[in-house]
Design brief:
- It contains 20 helices and 20 strands.
- The chain is an alpha+beta fold.
- Helix 3 packs across helix 5 and helix 10 crosses helix 15.
């Protein structure tokens, strides 16, 4: 219990002679340094509020305006057209708090000029912000044809002038447009168009009648409520999306909602588990520092200066989803000085700051190694406690209220929930290794997706997993943010780990170790047998055992060759998925493609229905080897389906239907696309590996069609007539 004694700033003993007070100056010094760090963060936040408040201008621009006004007045000219004189007449300079005060006429004029300069400066800022908002509200640029840009879009390109000043992470937030409410007639028309290829003529007629009836009755009333909400809400759908799509779900979030990120496929920076953990934790905390100081450049639409909403970054760290009887709640804390580490059934609190400074990677490696070397056994009921976060939400909410609302359990649970993030030191080895790299890659994906169902804390905003052989990965909770936000975090982490922090020749972290560091603190538990951990574990294990996932890198070609065919890579992959499904199941199905709406303030995702009448016609024509025209299937890439990374791989579990497929993909550089296919063993009609084979063939066949190479097609030849 040495760490407990070190945590006490003072001790006192009552004796017959009086009170004997003993101060721990080391502990008091730590308290002082922590307070200094906290105040520095407050000052930084205040400074950033000022900088964001005047963007796209700068605080120093006030001085320029004031000097310009004073210089003009010095030349015997009144740039205010009499306003300075009126301000001077109304300034309360004569009496203040009953005291007689006087300024010279020149002083009064000077003060009035400064007041006018400030008002003029604020007016210019409001004008600039209005212009920026109008520019960001224009979206017709994405529908312009190559080489045929309208005059309106040319004027809109002035947006680049506002991007010359380096913005903070949240500088654009108040200038982003609000998500517009579509007309109900347009919504119903798009819906009917999306289901047209899936229904018979009779079914389509019935659906059309139902849509018309809905529009004329309940639909219009609901539309008015929606418009009313849009008038006062920042985003009329995001809060409902978060609550009703995610937080109100009562089933397990493991597999069904959480998603994962992988390590480098072909490179492992070190095989030392503690060292990889040290660098990974450091890189994540460096990213958190950039988020807190708003030093990250706002994400943009690739290849443009158009910013995307950064609101999802706010709850990236120090965030936990807590269960409730009817709905869960996202809890976020402004700061956290520690992470929680799980190893062999035990939970440890690992402090990551010492004396107001971030521990070095080498010090973190030293602390992690002490956890790995700790021989103490788990407390009764501790080993599989994490299964409560993997099972159904209602039992977890009940157990949390009954057994974790007070005492030692409350304190330990509070430590996990308030931690910056969660770390699992896994005692298995994973990655593309051995004689069966394809099978090992699938097992690696399943391990990151659900692990042993109790060795992750699925409620945390994200958990990192460090394997015994140095491989790592990430499991993220979905309600607080979408995959592109976490992908950016993970890309930064891997790049910083391997290329910025680096390792010594023997695979250890760089830096020195302060030997007086207190050891990581074991979290204590008092778990009664009736806590129903085993019941939640059984539910989670049944769910995990039903997951059939297949991960494979497609290396025959990538976006470079696709773009040479003058086709959007996303459209190419989507039509390939339609062809693969048609060959696998002999028909078409409703398809959900996630597309982000972060061009709007607090935007999340929207649905692209890639199974359309045109795509079905294309697939049937290709299978029938008929003459077809590709340009009727013209689609645009919906923003950012995934971050394009040259050295990393991120897959997400995206299965929506129990009898269907979930397919995630990420474009890696110019020559590779990585795919994740998931389905369920309980469905006799699906097979993830079989679909993967069909997808490979579909990609090759469509490329052969585009390039006019019939020998490259697995089905035969098809003639192309491009317009």
């Amino acid at each position: 219990m040495a760490e407990a004694h070190q945590a006490v700033a003072f001790q006192f003993t009552i004796t017959p002679e009086g009170i004997d007070l003993q101060l721990s100056y080391q502990a008091l010094n730590q308290i002082y340094l922590s307070g200094v760090r906290s105040w520095k963060k407050r000052v930084s936040r205040m400074k950033n509020r000022v900088i964001k408040g005047v963007y796209p201008a700068s605080p120093s621009s006030w001085l320029f305006v004031a000097i310009a006004i004073l210089a003009t007045m010095y030349m015997q000219s009144d740039p205010s057209m009499g306003l300075i004189s009126k301000i001077q007449q109304h300034l309360p300079l004569r009496y203040t708090c009953g005291l007689h005060m006087s300024l010279s006429a020149q002083g009064q004029t000077m003060l009035s000029a400064l007041v006018f300069s400030t008002l003029l400066w604020l007016s210019l800022i409001l004008t600039l912000r209005l212009c920026l908002k109008l520019l960001l509200s224009y979206h017709r640029w994405m529908f312009e044809l190559h080489g045929k840009v309208s005059n309106t879009t040319k004027v809109w390109s002035l947006l680049r002038l506002f991007s010359r000043r380096k913005p903070l992470l949240y500088s654009y937030q108040t200038s982003l447009p609000h998500l517009p409410v579509p007309a109900i007639k347009d919504t119903l028309s798009r819906y009917l168009e999306s289901v047209r290829p899936l229904l018979t003529d009779q079914e389509l007629k019935r659906m059309t009648d139902l849509a018309n009836d809905f529009e004329s009755t309940l639909g219009n009333r609901l539309q008015r409520y929606l418009k009313l909400k849009a008038l006062w809400a920042t985003n009329y759908v995001s809060d409902w999306w978060e609550e009703y799509i995610y937080l109100r779900g009562r089933g397990p979030i493991m597999v069904n909602s959480n998603y994962y990120g992988m390590d480098f496929l072909y490179v492992t920076p070190t095989t030392v588990q503690a060292a990889r953990a040290g660098n990974t934790i450091t890189a994540l905390l460096l990213y958190r520092r950039k988020v807190n100081k708003e030093e990250l450049t706002p994400s943009r639409v690739p290849g443009t200066d158009i910013p995307l909403c950064a609101a999802q970054c706010e709850r990236m760290f120090n965030t936990t989803r807590t269960p409730g009887a009817e709905t869960d709640v996202l809890q976020h804390w402004l700061d956290s000085d520690f992470v929680v580490v799980y190893h062999r059934g035990r939970y440890f609190r690992l402090w990551v700051y010492r004396g107001g400074r971030l521990l070095s990677p080498r010090e973190l490696e030293h602390q992690i190694q002490s956890i790995l070397d700790d021989p103490s056994p788990p407390f009764p009921g501790e080993e599989k406690l994490g299964a409560l976060t993997a099972g159904d939400r209602c039992p977890w909410a009940q157990m949390r209220k009954q057994f974790f609302s007070s005492g030692v359990n409350r304190r330990s649970l509070d430590a996990i929930e308030r931690a910056a993030f969660f770390v699992t030191l896994d005692d298995e080895e994973q990655g593309m290794k051995g004689d069966d790299p394809a099978g090992n890659l699938d097992r690696y994906a399943k391990s990151l997706l659900h692990g042993k169902c109790y060795d992750r804390w699925f409620d945390k905003s994200f958990s990192i997993v460090i394997y015994k052989n140095g491989k790592n990965g990430l499991n993220a909770e979905h309600s607080w943010a979408d995959a592109p936000t976490v992908a950016h975090l993970w890309e930064y982490t891997l790049a910083t780990d391997a290329f910025h922090l680096g390792y010594t020749q023997d695979g250890h972290c760089k830096g020195e170790v302060e030997r007086s560091l207190p050891p990581p603190q074991r979290l204590a538990w008092d778990i009664p047998p009736e806590a129903q951990v085993c019941r939640s574990l059984a539910v989670a294990q049944a769910l995990a055992a039903d997951v059939d996932c297949h991960v494979f890198p497609f290396r025959e070609f990538g976006k470079g060759r696709i773009k040479k065919c003058r086709v959007s890579p996303d459209a190419f992959i989507q039509i390939s998925l339609q062809l693969a499904h048609y060959r696998d199941r002999g028909g078409f199905c409703l398809t959900y493609e996630a597309s982000m709406t972060r061009l709007f303030r607090e935007g999340r995702t929207e649905t692209v229905r890639s199974c359309s009448s045109e795509s079905c016609t294309f697939v049937k024509a290709l299978e029938g080897r008929e003459v077809i025209s590709l340009i009727k299937i013209q689609t645009s890439k919906p923003g950012e389906p995934g971050c394009e990374m040259k050295l990393m791989v991120t897959f997400v579990s995206s299965q929506v239907a129990d009898d269907g497929y979930g397919v995630s993909y990420i474009i890696v550089g110019e020559d590779m696309i990585n795919f994740h296919v998931s389905s369920k063993y309980s469905c006799s009609e699906t097979d993830s590996r079989r679909f993967g084979v069909q997808l490979r063939k579909a990609l090759q066949d469509i490329m052969a069609l585009l390039s006019g190479d019939p020998k490259g097609s697995s089905k035969g030849s098809a003639q192309v007539q491009p317009k």
